[in-house]
Amino acid sequence: MKIKLIKSVSFSAIHFVNPFFIVIFSKIEMMTHPVLETERLLLRQLTILDTEDLFEYFSLDEVMEYYDLNTFEDKKEAKNIILHFNNEFESRKGFRWAIELKSEKKVIGTCGYHNWFHDHFKAEIGYELNPKYWRKGYMKEAILPIVTFGFETMNLHRVEAFIDPANISSEKLLISCGFKEEGTMHDFFFEKGRFVDAKIFGIINE
Description:
This protein is of the alpha+beta class. α1 packs across α3. The protein has helices at 51-58, 61-64, 75-90, 138-152, 168-176, and strands at 2-6, 13-17, 22-25, 35-37, 41-45, 95-101, 106-117, 122-129, 158-163, 180-191, 194-204. An 11-stranded mixed β-sheet has the order 1-2-3-4-5-6-7-8-9-11-10, sandwiched between helices.
């Protein structure tokens, strides 16, 4: 792996270059949101300027089918979720990256960590993607460096994901990223007025 020091206007960073991705990061203690870069994607902090891009797909039933929120009807809801994700980072409860497609300078989804249990060295990963960009490998391209960041910079030992058993596409995605299925919890979440099962997947830093 080649390593070279680069300059940044906002923080000192190190570029890690390997066949899969380039990672730019700052120390978590600096409270500067880390930026990750892949061949096609820029993974960065969400801003209010991303409201329109998020509302474009959070307002679609097909995106929200397995989400624990109702389909958005107002752009204020997109603004509020951006504020929520950024508050989670500021309170050290998690990270959420905007997935910006570099060729279009457009946010096509988000991915990141929540339920970060520092004492247990684990966090839960979550994600969603604009349907216009499904089945193009973008989410896998985002998840891989985010998991690496979790292991190498956040000092996570375990990353886990909970998905609806009917969400076959998400299951295939996680397996392709090295996660292993660990079982099914029945009536594990109460979402949109009903109890739902959850399949759990995990990956260990070994």
